[in-house]
Each structure stands twice: as structure tokens, then as C-alpha cells.
Amino acid sequence: MKTIPTGTKDSALILSSIGEILHLQGKYEDAEEIYRKALEIRRNSYASTHPLIANSLVNLARIYRRKSKNDKALVIFKEALTIQEECYKHSHVDIAMNLNNIATTLLFQGMIKEANSYLTRAISILRKYYQSDHINIIQVF
């Protein structure tokens, strides 16, 4: 990792990709560390409402959910949602995917009614972009 230029926007992208690989390998502690570094770089490089910051937050929250730290994951997913809604003005696929992340986390916590409201909103957004048999809509159901 010493060959990655540190502190640049490009290095944040590279770190995010490495974090995803580690995540897929089940190396959650390592992935968390890498995702945190990418988030820090992006926070130092972009405005606070930039979609790449939301992206980094979602990556980090997914790790916390995987580690059964659902309360922490939920806070971070919601922080990302706030940024996404500011960037995209409420109707974007990234918002729908994150609404689904929030709903899934709520389901893990047994909060079915609240999860349903997030899923309903996610499906409403996805239907604007995809046909009803598209994989992104099917996965939300």
C-alpha cells in the first residue's frame, strides 16, 4: 500500500476499491480501516455534501452492519442519505439503494414497520428508472 499516493482524490478511489475487495473477502477490520482512510481523504477533498462522501459513508456502514453493529451502521447510512438527498434532490438510484440499506438494517433490529416505510420509498424511486421486473426492484422486494 505504500505505492498508493496518499491524500489525493485518486488515492481515495483506489482505497475504496481495496476496501471492497477486503470486504468481499470477509476481512472486515481491514476493510473498515481502508474505508475510513478513503472517507477522510474525501472529506478533506470535497464539499461536505459531495456524493463521493456519501459513497464512502455507505461503504463504512455496510461494514458495521456486517459486524452486527447495526446501531452504528444505521446512523452512518442516515448521514449518507442526508448527503444524497442534498445532492440528488430526492429521486436518484443511489438514494433508493441506501433506503434499502437502511430498511435492511432496521429489519435486523426487528423494526419492521419503520423498515417498510424506507422500502416503500425505495421502490417508488426505483420504479421511475426501471421496469417492474428489473433486478434492482426485485432485490428490494
From TrEMBL:
This is Kinesin light chain. TPR repeats lie at residues 12-45, 54-87. It holds the Pfam family TPR_10. SMART domains: TPR. It comes from Adineta ricciae. SUPFAM superfamilies: TPR-like. Keywords: Repeat, TPR repeat. It comes from the Eukaryota.
